[in-house]
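Researcher: Here's a chain I'd like modeled. Treat it as a single chain, no partners, no ligands.
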Amino acid sequence: MPKIAQNTGRAFDRPELTDKTISSGQEAIGRASFFEALPISETELKGGILLLSVDSNTCLSSESKHEYLQTSERSEKKPKRTINRKRIIYDDTFTHNGKTYQVNATKSGLYAEILKSIIEQFQIALLKWKRVFVLRFDLHTHAFSEDNKRITAFRKRLFEKLKRQYGFKDIGFCWVREHERAKAQHYHFVLFLDGRLIKHSSKIIPMIKAAWEDGTGTYTVPYIKHPFHFADSEDVIKKAVYRVSYLAKPRGKGYRPSQTKDFQCSRMKS
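Model: Modeled as a single isolated chain. Structure tokens:
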């Protein structure tokens, strides 16, 4: 009967498989063959594929390669949606601080919490400056990340440039993170700036690109037609609110780790 290796209480640091048997008296002793293990992560093992060991000189069969590739592709898919406890409204109007606005609820509705934060910061900006420059833009990334460190760093770089160029004391903003059909998330962003100090977006757009893009094509700022409003009348204010209310839509939100935010707004006070 073959000898059985004793459990020493320690894990193997590489697979040991027996492939030959040598007779020694009346006992058969297994001779261990040493192979390097494939770099299969715990996540991939949970997917249902277990590869023990493969000789470095041995190629995987076409069937095994296909299974391995399928597992890798599954690991690249967007994460499962996190349970979101925000309240969804489906009305095409929203009232805050006694003012009612038309909003872009479409079919999916809007998250009331996000919509309230956006409108509140816009209202405070109007009280501060009377004329508010509202700039709407998008930020795309082709590399998925579980956190929002990239957009946090972007915001700091951009705000430093804006304050240096225009002398702003306060900057209102709101961004949302969404993940739909693409492999990576993208962001929608709105800025509320002192419209008395700005004449056009022609200087700000290059600042946004310089703060976000990295020259490799991984981080891009897509073109948006008519991206800004000078909100200094009720008519323009209503148009601006309707446009930026799009950021509060539920579609695409929640595909992130539970500790990662899917929106953030400034905390300007009147």
